[in-house]
Design goal:
Blueprint lengths: L20 E4 L3 H11 L5 E4 L5 H10 L2 E3 L13 E4 L4 H14 L2 E4 L12 E5 L2 E5 L6 H14 L3 H17 L7 H13 L2 H7 L2 H14 L3
Parallel strand pairs: 1-2, 1-4, 2-3, 4-5
Antiparallel strand pairs: 6-7
Helix pairs in contact: 1-2, 5-6, 5-7, 5-8
């Protein structure tokens, strides 16, 4: 079977709080995209002459700016990141041409060949982010894998990643851990503890005491 010609997208995490986004479209597709962006505290502007009822509620609740106009090239000028969430091919293709000419980053929902970037299926547990992608070829399959991962990583991993972050901060800022080998041994000690079991039976405060015990072992 011949593969479709799609770019080889590079996986990256980006802080979109620094880049206000324009979402073109006011239907269910735009709604899903906006809900996803809001979970990352992104500043959003919606461009559409009509807005569906559910999206209106989201816009009102989150005080999202709306430009009640049909698409025109002038509206992409002040945005670096654009999402085209319309169901009209001709509009998506025009947005693509305009963004290419203006060096804007564009995601056309469900049309990877018109995208500068695509969005993976994501599992989040606090600061732990696990993403799955099929390079845009089979998003339904990536979603299925994401659902399986979702069951593997329980809510405890939100606390585990917090503990790991605190532990790393202590290690990186303590002169006793200047040696790469000592750092490696300390991290190995961290992985020897069943953190999920500790959190479930003893709680996060007790878990932090375990971290201090590991640190003290290397300070003797």
């Amino acid at each position: 079977m011949k593969k479709s010609k799609i770019s080889n997208f590079y996986p990256i995490l980006i802080n979109l709080q620094k880049f206000p986004c324009l979402v073109i479209g006011g239907g269910q597709v735009a709604l899903r995209k906006i809900q996803s962006l809001l979970s990352y505290n992104v500043k959003i502007t919606v461009l559409s002459p009509s807005i569906c009822k559910q999206l209106k509620a989201v816009i009102k609740k989150n005080k999202i700016k709306v430009i009640p106009k049909y698409y025109s090239k002038e509206y992409i000028k002040n945005y670096k990141v654009i999402f085209s969430a319309t169901n009209k091919r001709e509009i998506n293709e025009q947005v693509f041409k305009d963004c290419k000419a203006e060096n804007k980053l564009l995601n056309v929902v469900d049309v990877p060949e018109l995208c500068d970037f695509i969005l993976p299926a994501v599992v989040r547990r606090g600061d732990l982010t696990i993403s799955v992608s099929s390079q845009g070829r089979a998003p339904f399959f990536a979603k299925e894998i994401k659902n399986k991962i979702d069951h593997i990583f329980s809510s405890y991993y939100e606390d585990i990643i917090d503990l790991a972050g605190d532990f790393r901060s202590i290690i990186m800022n303590n002169k006793k851990f200047d040696s790469p080998k000592i750092k490696e041994k300390a991290f190995e000690k961290f992985f020897m503890i069943d953190w999920k079991k500790v959190l479930r039976s003893e709680g996060k405060i007790k878990a932090k005491e375990y971290i201090q015990k590991i640190i003290k072992e290397f300070q003797k």
